[in-house]
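Minimal example, chain plus PBG.
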Amino acid sequence: MLDNIFRGRRLRQSPAMRSLCRETGPLLAGQLIMPYFVVDNPDPGFAREIPAMPGQMQLGLDALKARVGRYHELGLKALILFGIPAHKDEQASGAYAENGIVQRACRMLKSEFPGLLIITDVCLCEYMSHGHCGIITADGAVENDATLPLLARTAVSHAQAGADIVAPSDMMDGRVGFLRNALDQAGFSMTPIMSYAVKYASAYYGPFREAAESAPACGDRKSYQMDPANWREAIREARADLEEGADILIVKPAGPYGDIIRLVAENCDAPICAYQVSGEYSLIRAAAQQGWVNGEAVMLESLTGIKRAGAGIIITYFTEELLDKGLAVRN
Ligand code: PBG
Ligand code: ZN
């Protein structure tokens, strides 16, 4: 007979005992955000599966309406929109066009589903012929300050089209304050900014760049997105965005950056949103398709890990599957 050992198994012996002692609650539908890729296609019923992201689609306006309608009925409360324009140029003019694809999608979704939160990704890369998130100088550098007015125009045009929250993902310095000012002056002082405050230069974005057709034509994003080796810098980025007026902070990617989620949650008092990015999704999907892991179990474990790290809000491509299977609590 062993004396005085810690018998951790006492509290694991039955499902009810485990439920009693569970430290992280179930996923709440109201805190999940589903990303959608809306395409400016002459056929509004256009729908194409993204090869690198099985189960995820590029959708024309009508296809988007049908899909969102279906999931709104199943409990979908929030989505984030990415646009794929018909034409790209060096000014990203499609990003802030009154009749741009995201602007049209916002107006449509707002009138069809008034209770749904429409979040828009504010960036220029999908609209730039070169695929970078900002204006490029002759020598190929991404110019910070010249990019800010275009981002502000984009954010204001989204708000005018009915976006409930704008989410700048470009990583230019000073853009949160610049956007806040522009939104306030345009009469949108109540439109929150959900800032991609802590966004790493990550290889996990690979599948997204296929989905959004936004891979940089040359170079990479390392001069504006963060170095994956850094953690103290995350606090500086988060604090800077809060001081400039950010309402919600995004940490991205999520799973491999659980330490960063925890760090930001402990050092900042704004809501924390973690973005489980395209590569995190595709890795799980691919292994599940091969039969190498139990896809549903890994999906749930990955999201529990993100929540346990300290994220309240989660952007995940698994949102639809969670709703389909009743794996998120409707609230
Ligand atoms: C645009 C943007 C990206 C993602 C969100 N907004 C791509 C990038 O920065 O290269 C990545 C999302 C994902 O991988 O799911 N700036
Ligand atoms: Zn971008």
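The pocket of zinc ion (ligand 2) is lined by residues 123, 125, 133, 169-170 (CB under 6 Å). The two ends are 49 Å apart (CA to CA).
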